[in-house]
C-alpha cells in the first residue's frame, strides 16, 4: 500500500473515532503528517497533552487506549508497529527495549513518562503530570 | 478454510491447553471473538496464531513463545494479572474481566522482588 | 483383550531414531533412546502437529510447528508439566517391540 492510501485510510479511521466525540477532525488534505492531522481537530483546546501510542492493528487494548486519550482531548500520535515500515519498527523496538524485554502493547508515552499496558488509572495520572 | 471454522478449531484446541493451567476463555465474548479473528488473520499472514497484543521480533526463539496460548511461557506474570496479556484467557475464578488490568512485566517483576 | 500390540522389530530403530506408527487406530510415535523404547501419542496437544516431524534431542522431542518440547519418558510438556501427551508402556520380547495401548 502506498503512503497516500495509508493516509486516506488513517483519515477515515480518525474520522470514525473523533466523530462520536462531537469533534470534527477537520483534516487538512494538504498536510503530510498524519499525527498532525489528527491533532488539528483539537486546535481550540488549549494546553492539550501530547501522547504517543505505540500499538498493533490487532490489539483491542491499543484501540481502547486511543479512545481514552482522545476523549480526554489529548493530541494522540498513534503508531502501529505491525504496519510500520522497517525503519520505524526498528526504532520502536530499540526504544522499547529500554522499558521492557518484551514488546507488549499498547505503549503510551507522554512527556518523559511511559506506561506499558492498558491501565486507565495510570493514564489519568499521565495526563495530570 | 473460512475464518469462522478456524476460530472454532482454535477454541477447541486451546481449551485443551488452558484448562489444566487453570484458565478459561474470557467471559467477554465480544473480546474473545475479536481476538480469535485476529489470530486467524495472523496465522494466515505469519504462519502462526501469535498473540494479537504483543509484537514479534523476528527471532524464532522469542516469537514462538508468543504463539497462542502463550501462558506456559509467561505464567508467573499472567498468574499475577489473572489473565493473559491480551485478555483472551482469564483465571477460572474470574467473573468480571473488566476488573483486571494489564500490569507490565517490569512492574510485575518489581512488585515480586519487593515481596 | 490383551493390550500389548506388536509395533516393530527391535532392529528396525537405532538409538536416537523415531518413527510414526498407527497402532489400533492410534497415531503413535515410537522413539529409541539409550537402548530403551518410548511410545507416545504422535499428536502435539497444542495444534495437532505430528511430533514425528520434530527434533529429538536426548529425551526431549521438540515439535516442528511451534517448538513445544516434551519429555519422551513421561510425555510431559517441559514448560508446564500439567500438560502431557499420552504415553504408553513398551516391552521388548524376542527382538520385537510391543506397545501397551492402554494409557
Q: Could you please describe the fold and organization of this structure?
A:
The complex is a heterotrimer of chains A (129), B (115) and C (103). Chain A contains five helices and four strands. Chain A has 129 residues and is of the alpha+beta class. In chain A, strands 2-1-3-4 form a four-stranded mixed sheet. The N and C termini of chain A lie far apart (38 Å). Chain B has 115 residues and is mainly alpha-helical. Helix content of chain B is 48%, strand content 5%. Chain B is built from five helices and two strands; from the N terminus they run H-E-H-H-H-E-H. The longest helix of chain B has 18 residues, at 29-46. The relative contact order of chain B is 0.16. In chain C, strands 2-3-4-8 form a four-stranded antiparallel sheet, with no helix packed on it. A three-stranded antiparallel sheet of chain C has the order 1-10-9, with no helix packed on it. Chain C is mainly beta. In chain C, a hairpin with a 2-residue loop joins strand 5 and strand 6 (60-62). In chain C, 0% of the residues lie in helices and 46% in strands.
Task: Give the SSE layout.
The complex is a heterotrimer of chains A (129), B (115) and C (103).
Chain A: H1 3-18, H2 34-39, E1 50-55, H3 60-71, E2 75-80, H4 86-96, E3 107-110, E4 113-116, H5 120-128
Parallel strand pairs in A: 1-2
Antiparallel strand pairs in A: 1-3, 3-4
Chain B: H1 3-18, E1 23-25, H2 29-46, H3 60-63, H4 75-81, E2 89-91, H5 105-114
Antiparallel strand pairs in B: 1-2
Helix pairs in contact in B: 1-2
Chain C: E1 4-9, E2 17-23, E3 26-33, E4 36-41, E5 55-57, E6 60-62, E7 69-71, E8 87-88, E9 90-93, E10 96-100
Antiparallel strand pairs in C: 1-10, 2-3, 3-4, 4-8, 5-6, 6-7, 9-10
